[in-house]
Design goal:
With 345 residues, the chain is of the alpha+beta class. The protein contains 9 helices and 18 strands. Helix 6 runs antiparallel to helix 7. It starts with 6 loop residues before the first strand and ends with a strand. The structure holds adenosine-5'-diphosphate and magnesium ion.
């Protein structure tokens, strides 16, 4: 870890504010950036538990009524996306795919079809680190009840983890599994997608300054009147210790960590990001933060370093425009893309 004080990084490619950062800034209030006078209105905020996580919305709105209505709209959208992608609900479209796509093509709504198609783009981009068919083995884990598959069970299901065996038919908006035992799960970018949808909704309502988070996935709209939003990245082992503070505007940021959903057994950590090649928890980093234009993208890409390791993930990120990443390795070493350079470097 680079020192005890949190680092504040300067982010160029993601079109972030350039700050004069001679000293380590503790928070936005100490920032030398010029501050505009805010127009009439106020900040509104709310938190809720949806999609199995903490949803947080903060926005600037001219009136109390329009601010509260905008937050209501975001919360409804979170519920809608949850329904669409839930694998808990047997009647959901996703559950229908898992139950029947092995028998033949299953027709689904365009929105779900497009998301599945999008997931294949992420699989291609990440050399298969992101793979929604991870669920063929992933469903054998139950982190809450400390259940995990043994080697024989993994062996029996691993060949079904293969994004290339998902057959999509755009003309019919249908999905088919070409291998027995396949399952899909969209949890790898569902929250990011819900956050993006929420930001679009807010924009359509004329909101110009907002932050929407679903667990580790956040998207920022606008700034805080002449100042950036400051987002902190926590230490993997200490929820109260911030290792980095990043100034952000008009950008998305996702952090995945092995401390989110996990259990430890005999010194091994079993957590919720699965290496599609082995069926085991992917442990090449402790946490990964991706910054980029949309939360769907940053959420999807945040799995790469866990599966492929920090060096390979940095190589992949360098090829993608406007995307940056920061990883914390198993030994606490911090890795970052060239676009994220500590001040003075
Ligand atoms: P959160 O679900 O809190 O946003 P992450 O962004 O770290 O947490 O995503 C973890 C989720 O991603 C898992 O719960 C699972 O649904 C999904 N997942 C796990 N491994 C993979 C993988 N290799 N490819 C795609 N999705 C994955
Ligand atoms: Mg996520």
């Amino acid at each position: 870890m680079a020192g005890r004080e949190p680092m504040l990084l300067r982010i160029s490619p993601a079109k972030l504010v350039l700050l004069a950062l001679a000293c380590g800034l503790a928070n936005a209030a100490t920032m030398p950036a010029a501050t505009m006078v805010a127009p009439a209105g106020a900040w509104h905020q709310r938190e809720a538990a949806i999609m199995g996580t903490r949803i947080a919305v903060e926005l600037w709105s001219k009136t109390e009524a329009s601010g509260e209505a905008a937050i209501d709209a975001v919360m409804s959208e979170m519920h809608r996306v949850d329904e669409l992608m839930s694998h808990y609900k047997p009647e959901s479209q996703l559950s229908r795919i898992n139950a029947h796509a092995g028998e033949g093509p299953v027709r689904v709504d365009r929105e779900l079809f497009d998301l599945i198609a999008r997931s294949l783009e992420f699989s291609r981009l990440t050399d298969g680190a992101f793979d929604i068919t991870y669920a063929s083995v992933g469903y054998l884990y139950d982190y809450r009840h400390h259940v995990r598959p043994d080697e024989a069970q993994i062996e029996a299901h691993l060949s079904a983890v293969d994004w290339r065996s998902l057959e999509l038919d755009p003309a019919n908006s249908s999905v088919r599994f070409t291998k027995p035992g396949m399952r899909i799960d969209l949890g790898g970018f569902a929250k990011g997608y819900a956050v993006d949808r929420s930001i679009e909704l807010l924009r359509a309502r004329g909101i110009q300054h907002a932050s929407v988070s679903a667990g580790g996935d956040t998207r920022i709209l606008g700034d805080r009147f002449g100042r950036p939003w400051i987002v902190g990245i926590r230490h993997p082992d200490d929820a109260h210790r911030v290792i980095l503070r990043i100034p952000l505007e008009n950008v998305a940021l996702s952090t995945s960590g092995d401390y989110e959903r996990y259990f430890d057994e005999d010194g091994v950590r079993y957590h919720h990001i699965i290496d599609p090649r082995t069926g085991h928890s992917a442990s090449k980093v402790r946490s990964a933060t991706i910054i980029g234009p949309t939360a769907t993208q940053t959420d999807g890409l945040s799995k790469t370093a866990f599966v492929l390791g920090p060096e390979k993930a940095l190589e992949i990120l360098k090829r993608i425009p406007d995307v940056d990443g920061v990883f914390v390795g198993p030994d606490g070493k911090v890795y970052y893309t060239p676009g994220l350079a500590p001040p003075g470097k």
